[in-house]
Specification:
single chain; alpha/beta; Rossmann fold; Arc Repressor Mutant, subunit A; 2 domains; 5-stranded parallel beta sheet; 11 strands; 21% strand; elongated
């Protein structure tokens, strides 16, 4: 899933970008509020993590302008200020969550997972399709009785497909959600990773879950959809 991170402390920005990327998120990062707003208007994100005290535009101003422009991306605020007034203001403006610095990395990751669930409408961090199960917190995937080892990018792709099971997703939409603006993959990068997933998910004798819709894209189908 694709996340925007706006944090003006460069060391913290680098740490969070690296950690979120390791968790399989496509991450675009920036250091001020105006740049954050530009990113939010240019791409569709599953969640945004915004520092409150940023140069050019603070987090509150970014959120206010987002909502004024019809951008509904869920927002998690990061701040060193723990006053109740700031929390109330952020929530009233439409923030989904609020995390006070310093924070534990595990808590941040849990809150980001909750943010993504909120965006997709999922009720828990365990996703299922047929006999396939993906646990977003434990970072595990199982099909039937076997455990499946995935790279972080494969995990992110499968998670996105499962969040949108039975929905046709175009190559462009998949690429926009899984890879950030800076990725240097080829034009067929989505096809390559779908091929990787199929080899691991759709084993011999198992119902095929990942389907190609020619001219349209891909779909993870919950149940026996026949051959595609």
């Amino acid at each position: 899933m694709r996340i925007l991170l706006a944090e003006d402390e460069r060391d913290l920005n680098d740490i969070l970008t690296k950690k979120l990327s390791e968790e399989g998120y496509g991450v675009d990062s920036c250091y001020d509020g105006e740049e954050a707003l530009d990113f939010l208007e240019a791409a569709e994100y599953d969640g945004a993590v915004l520092d409150v005290m940023m140069p050019r535009l603070d987090g509150f101003a970014v959120l206010e302008r987002m909502r004024g422009r019809g951008i509904a991306t869920p927002v998690l605020f990061l701040t060193a200020r723990d006053g109740i007034e700031d929390r109330v203001r952020g929530l009233d403006l439409g923030a989904s969550d609020y995390l006070v610095k310093p924070f534990a990395m595990d808590e941040l990751l849990a809150r980001v997972r909750a943010l993504v669930r909120r965006a997709s409408g999922a009720r828990s961090g365990v996703l299922t399709a047929d006999d396939l199960t993906l646990d977003t917190a434990a970072h595990t995937v199982r099909r039937g009785g076997r455990e499946i080892e995935l790279s972080s990018r494969e995990f992110a792709l499968l998670s996105y497909l499962m969040h949108n099971k039975n929905i046709v997703l175009s190559r462009e939409k998949i690429e926009d959600h899984i890879w950030n603006f800076d990725h240097e993959g080829g034009t067929n990068i989505v096809d390559v990773y779908i091929s990787y997933l199929r080899k691991k998910i759709d084993g011999a004798g198992e119902r095929k879950l990942i389907h190609t819709l020619r001219g349209s894209g891909y779909m993870l189908k919950d149940g026996d959809g026949g051959k595609c």
